[in-house]
């Protein structure tokens, strides 16, 4: 046989062997990655979408301000948020009703579990942790709400809470000093409190955008605090307040002769406004606005819209879906 022919055959066999090895390695790697992704208790390999930075806003505790203030803000801005619900507080004073929860979900909001009674999970028994996490999900689902994710009360958790959460939820949001989510642990999604100055939050948003990260901010009740002078009379808890001449409207929470805490329902209260209780008839003059959560949230959303129009507002569930879709990999739950 011709030596040249033998060399050709040998070379082809070597090439075929090499290609076979490459194919086997590739299939093995893909299988391993797919198997990892199919695990319901670990997605460490998942990373945030590197092309599109993500932003999630979560309101903890199911306060009625999620509905009477935040719902309209996010709807007018064309965005969505999440509401974390303590099921024993549904239909109680100053908290969301069942119909309000359905309206929020119909508007695109994600309803999250926030346990049954809001205990510090790291201080109670394993059996009670299981009850808190399981019953909260069951109650919300029996009310006709879709629930996939949890928020730890007080942002406290440990290995036991994580182990139990894995049985019932797709992920859990906690709170740390770490600012950005890399989805390195789906049961320890990090978040950052919105109770800071707007300039501080703005810096965090800037960095999240430049690093193409997922930023989760969390908030509780939406309220405002003002300083008063020349107060006359006593305001009644829960009564509506009028602010003139600004035209703002609020709902009284509590106060004394020099300060007031209220829910800012609409408009922007300004210094020198006259604040009148619609039931009590109490009157005072607004000396100074210490803070106004409603205005800060609007300013925050518009800052992102104006400076980073490609930064996506997403729910927790949508962010997890985005990360998975970016890798074109399957994921259970």
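^ structure tokens above, recovered residues below v
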């Amino acid at each position: 046989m011709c030596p040249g022919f033998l060399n050709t055959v040998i070379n082809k066999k070597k090439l075929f062997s090499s290609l076979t090895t490459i194919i086997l390695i590739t299939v093995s790697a893909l299988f391993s990655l797919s198997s990892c992704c199919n695990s319901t208790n670990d997605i460490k390999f998942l990373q945030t979408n590197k092309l599109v930075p993500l932003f999630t806003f979560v309101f903890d505790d199911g306060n009625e301000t999620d509905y009477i203030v935040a719902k309209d803000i996010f709807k007018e801005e064309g965005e969505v948020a999440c509401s974390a619900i303590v099921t024993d507080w549904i239909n109680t004073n100053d908290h969301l009703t069942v119909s309000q929860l359905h309206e929020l979900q119909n508007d695109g909001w994600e309803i999250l579990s926030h346990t049954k009674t809001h205990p510090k999970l790291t201080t109670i028994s394993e059996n009670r942790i299981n009850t808190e996490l399981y019953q909260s999900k069951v109650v919300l689902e029996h009310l006709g709400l879709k629930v996939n994710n949890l928020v730890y009360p007080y942002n406290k958790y440990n290995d036991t809470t994580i182990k139990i959460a894995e049985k019932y939820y797709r992920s859990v949001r906690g709170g740390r000093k770490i600012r950005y989510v890399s989805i390195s642990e789906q049961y320890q999604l990090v978040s950052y409190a919105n109770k800071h100055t707007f300039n501080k939050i703005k810096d965090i948003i800037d960095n999240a955008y430049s690093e193409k990260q997922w930023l989760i901010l969390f908030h509780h009740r939406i309220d405002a605090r003002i300083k008063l002078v020349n107060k006359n009379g006593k305001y009644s808890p829960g009564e509506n307040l009028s602010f003139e001449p600004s035209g703002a409207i609020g709902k009284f929470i509590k106060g004394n002769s020099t300060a007031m805490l209220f829910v800012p329902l609409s408009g922007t209260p300004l210094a020198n406004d006259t604040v009148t209780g619609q039931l009590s008839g109490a009157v005072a003059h607004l000396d100074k606005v210490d803070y106004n959560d409603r205005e800060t949230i609007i300013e925050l959303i518009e800052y992102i819209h104006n400076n980073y129009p490609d930064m996506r507002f997403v729910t927790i569930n949508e962010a997890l879906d985005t990360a998975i879709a970016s890798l074109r990999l399957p994921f259970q739950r």
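Residues 224-292 form one domain.
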